[in-house]
Amino acid sequence: MGALVEYSCLLARHALCDRNLAAAQQLQAHDKQVDQFYRQIEVDCVELLNHPPQGMQDLRHVSAFMQLIRDLERIGDYAKDIGEVAMRLFPYPAHPKSDEIRVMIDRCRSMVALSLVAVSDLNADVGLDIKIKDDAVDDDYERLYDTLVHADGMLTNIEVTVSLVLVIRYLERMADHATNVGRRIAYVVTGERR
Question: Three-state SS for 178?
Fold first, then answer.
């Protein structure tokens, strides 16, 4: 599931930044696969909660993983949403802020990748370090939002502006969900909420 979500983020980047129609279209199929994994893992976790294996004393792992997979599923949803916005933007020329939005996408992709490393290695330190990157994405969001909404209306197309505001909001939320994944892994490993 994690690999599919990570690849969905890459497809979203290709769709938006490289204006790749095939990548935008692939996101729909990827989202369906992510949703299937999400539902199956959720069922498996509920089964563990209802019938814990003998000797299993700490159910916080199951609970944390149920929340974690929801975060990953939401990241996949936002990647799909970016693909849909990208298709709406294809008829328009690239926006002057496209390079800055590309940097924001790359920051988010890095955070998703780190969150998956934290999961696979059960590494609390990596999980907690993701928050630092989230602060940079929050700064990107505020700066780009201010620039986009205060642009000269005569020089910009309103559909493009609204679409890009949606994209940066989706990216900001993806970063928040990646941060949540990291925090949940830290909780699984240390037993402490931070």
Answer: helix
Which amino acid, 82?
I
DSSP H helices in the chain: 2-17, 21-50, 60-89, 98-121, 124-149, 158-190
Q: What is d(CA 19, CA 11) in angstroms, rounded to the nearest whole number?
A: 10
CA distance 15 to 170: 14
pTM over 0.90: yes
pLDDT in tens, 49-107: 888 877 766 777 888 889 999 999 999 999 999 999 999 999 999 999 999 999 999 99
Q: Helix (H, G, I), strand (E, B), or coil: what is residue 97?
A: coil
CA 173, 47, 57: angle at the middle one, nearest 5?
Answer: 90
Residues in the chain: 194
